[in-house]
Design goal:
Structural class: mainly beta
Number of strands: 57
Length: 590
Amino acid sequence: MRSLVTRLITTCALLLVACTGDKATAPELVGGVAITSSSTTLQYGQTVQLVATVVGASGNALNGRPVTWTSSNDNVATVSPSGLVTAGAVRGGTAETAIITAAAEGRSAHVSLSVAPIPVTTITPSTGQLSLYVGQVLQLGVALKDATGGSLTGRSVTWSSTAPAIASVDNQGLVTAIAPGTSTITLTAENKTASVNVTIALVPISTIQLTPETSTLLVGQTQQLAVTLKDSAGGVLTGRSVAWTSVTPTIAIVTNTGLVTAVSAGTARIAVTAEGKSATATITVNDVVASVVVSPTAAYVQRGKTLQLSASARNAAGGIILGKTVTWTTNAPTIATVSSTGLVTVIGTGTAQIRATIDNKNDVSWLTAWDTCQNESFEIGEQRNTVLVNGGCDLWTARPQASVWRLTASTTVFNPSLFFGVVGNEFWGWSRSSPGIVSMEVIVPLGPVGVGIFDGSYQSKNGSFTFASSLVATDTVSCGGSVGILKNASAPRILGTRDCQTSSGNYFDTFWTLLNAGESITVTMKSADFDAYLELKTDNGSSIVAYDDDSAGGTNARIRYVTTSRGFYQIVARSFQSYRTGQYTIELNP
């Protein structure tokens, strides 16, 4: 009964309220959402709790209203249903942003969170060892990863070389090989480092080429050789060290720059080597003709007869040069002709010069042609009258006798020329420019000698003359006299007050001899009475070509000399001290 009454009372009360107009209170609408965060910047893996406050239109907080959380980029940051934000892995080089949104009943709020790039954990170059040739370049690569093994991009990498003069590297990792050696390339990113060991070597030489490979030189000439080094691709290599050598240094020598100098005739090989490779050049060296020697240098030939001449080319040392072409000419083709082989044919009377020319050098053979020659022998000390026929010569062969001879020819018909010499060799002497007496004194060697007399005017005159010969027992030549001396001859002489004197008072004698170009002679002067002194001069006496005081031992003098041209040479024999006189011996040998 009580419960029924209670329900009735409650129902009446409700009806009373309804009848009086009072209603129940409705929930307040959400007017806005606010988010509170303790940090807006996060590192990888960090968390932050966000708090969302829901307020009504009156600005009063509305508790218990449901809130929904979302992230604009879950890769950057995720958010839990309770608003707990967790920073993700940003693998780029700059921080990234995620927008966290809190929404409640159509209203929302946003907060921007910045997540820093995830740190570099490992740095790995594309290679740990690198071998390059000088001049090559190579781009190195690098892989950066984080703690999760993810690849990182956009990170700054610093490149450096421990030996930039050997291998340089730019800020992009491009390595350039500069010089042989080793270097270490170091990579650094966010305090993480790695290294690449680099070895630089020269590009191997594949071939060596010499230019020119063959050449021909004369003795004394030079030739610059050039060397070209190439790699296997045909590229030219520079800056390499090469070594030059002559396989035949007696023929040609070479400097360390490849300059070849021809030394003597022959074939030389010049070699160049570099890093185990080599090449050679062939140099043909020909001798330089310094002089020409014709044999015989003088001859007397009867008209209608022939004479075979020979010519040899000589180098500066007097050695014979083979294989040279000789050009023969005559200055008197109406007296004597000459063939291309040096065969002389006498067709007239008089004198002719037969010239042999080799490489612009020449020598002559002096030819005297006559019609008849009596070929009479004579004894030293006799005098005879005879007749010159057709301007020719009478030739006597004397018996062997080493001594000093005086020869005289006199005539009133022609200009007498008196020649004297070793039979079959050189003849020389004195001439007059008008009829009269021509006389000569000659120191002769042991062996047969000959005398020739002919018309010095070359007009083939005939006529009688007187010839006389005698031995000279003592030295009677005074100042101004001339004495000839043949090779292999010697004689005692006297230096006295009748001889010529120098301005210093030194007495001297003068001797003459005819020598060929390239001929080697030895002149010796010995005296027990004074200090001997020798001078060798050219034919006019103006130029001294050699001199000596004591080379023959003691106070004796000796000159050794190789002539440079054909002609007469003057030997001056004197005392070294002033006003000294006495006996001496003069000697001329090859």
